[in-house]
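agent> fetching stored inputs for the NA7 docking request
agent> found them:
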Amino acid sequence: MSNTDQAHIRSVATHRVDVVVVGAGFGGMYAIYKYRQMGLKVQGFEAGGNVGGVWYWNRYPGARVDLQSIDYSYSFSPEIEQEWTWPEEFSGQPDVLAYQNFVADRLDLRKDIRFNTRVTGAVWNTDRALWTVVTDQGDTFEATYCVMATGPLSIPKDPDIPGLNRFKGQLLRAAKWPHEPVNLAGKRVGVIGTGSTGIQIVQELGPKVGDLYVYQRTPSFTMPMRNRKLEPDYVAEVKRNYAGIREVARNSPIGGTRPQSTRAFFSVTRQQRRQLLEDGWRNGGLALLGTFADLLINPEANEEVAEFIRDKISEVVRDPVTAEKLKPRGYPVFARRPCLDTGYYETYNLPNVHLMDCLTDPILEVTERGVRTQAGEVELDTLILATGYDGLTGALLAFDVIGRDGRKLNEHWKNGARSYLGLMMEGFPNLFMTTGPNGPAALANIIRISEHDVDLVAGAITHMDKNGLETIEPSKDAEDNWMSLVATLAQRSLVSKAKTWYVGANVRDKPQGLTLFTGGFGKYRELCSAAVQDGYRGFVFGQKKRAGSA
Ligand code: NA7
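agent> prediction call returned; pasting tokens
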């Protein structure tokens, strides 16, 4: 942003608030509520037309959470816990969005949010110790604190395939699905991408469309979700025990109640291992991952589990050639986000579902009529892109964030995202992130992390208020040390050993490396809490200027 732009911002600035919150997904919604309850004047901004974040946009067929809804829900309000009833163990997108709307109504959140409004710039003014935030609607706000609740998955990524715009049929993006119903019955449909999103779409559409062509580059490991309706007795029991459920989640590595064994893989016999894996498979969800303690750090253990899943694929998929193509190889299981499915592999037994292997026959281009690979052109009525996101950093690098001394965030992150506790960056005073890079973000329950981060920020603001402090930012040393810890843990974890959005591999020219804290959510909480208890260790505060001083 040029000096002239900055001067312009100053000249039109009219709104002054205490806190700006960017994003009205789970993190932003809670942030708005929490800071408002503290008596602060809060302004939220949201690019979507309503609350929900990723759940507002992702209305594709079959969209569903892959964590139990009992865990994937707010814990900050005992009233809301009692008033809301989840119908299924793993909720579909309509129920998740209905829940978010229920919370927004219940807490009257919308009055403090400007919808259909995208933040286009945020600049720190050192003299006045405030952020100036501008939007694409021409609004300019000044705020003491800026909280980026922009989420790890909010910038969808089109594939680098030539000709996308040439397609004369219907082009649909999973991450920007139309709000009106889309009738695909009898149609020739192509789906590009077989991550969590592609898998959910394929299993949902396979039995419903004319022909389904699934363009798969890297096969994913997926396990049975075994979703179920929640019986009233079970729901009542949960409602009685929410406090305990939340306590378990807060101290667990994944921020949820899924059991996690401390058993090492090779501490039991081959036969016992097989039996335990069978039990995990039968229990469904991510039970398999919780069966042993060392699946993400012991490559031999990991490979045995991978082979167990490959065997399952052979048991289900009748055509052996298709089964082979569906088997993931060359990267550890659980290093890409493990998918949960309901009959995904079975879908390939349908005569109208065709697996297109982009590893042996890559997509050359999208044409006016469909998709062309080396083997030829497939004509399509509809092409669906399920090609993922510019994860973790995309949202914050989509606009100019300029900190102290004109420091640009894209410069600060030019070799990869840096932060202290996944929460703040050196040189960017009073700018907080929730579920930011180098925190546990994608590796644990995002709602538990969001609540934790929002509360941490609330604590810091209260501390500053009490002590006459005006600015907070991490020291360079603190950020360096945190980054070393993140890197050391990442080296030990198999999560860094696959080409995924976790490591930036899906975005051309993006710095590569795992910018996630792999020590687990419970440990992350402990480290944050220790820093706070130790007088906000690693943070540097600036005193409030006395009236009359420059
Ligand atoms: P993912 O997991 O990033 O998956 C994107 C998929 O799109 C993946 O299979 C990619 O294959 C595929 N892709 C991307 N570009 C291409 C091209 N050019 N050709 C063929 N295939 C391509 O995104 P999702 O939306 O499924 O899931 C994101 C998160 O949401 C997930 O981790 C959960 O946390 C929920 P590739 O792997 O690059 O070979």
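agent> quick read of the result: The mean pLDDT is 95.
agent> awaiting further instructions
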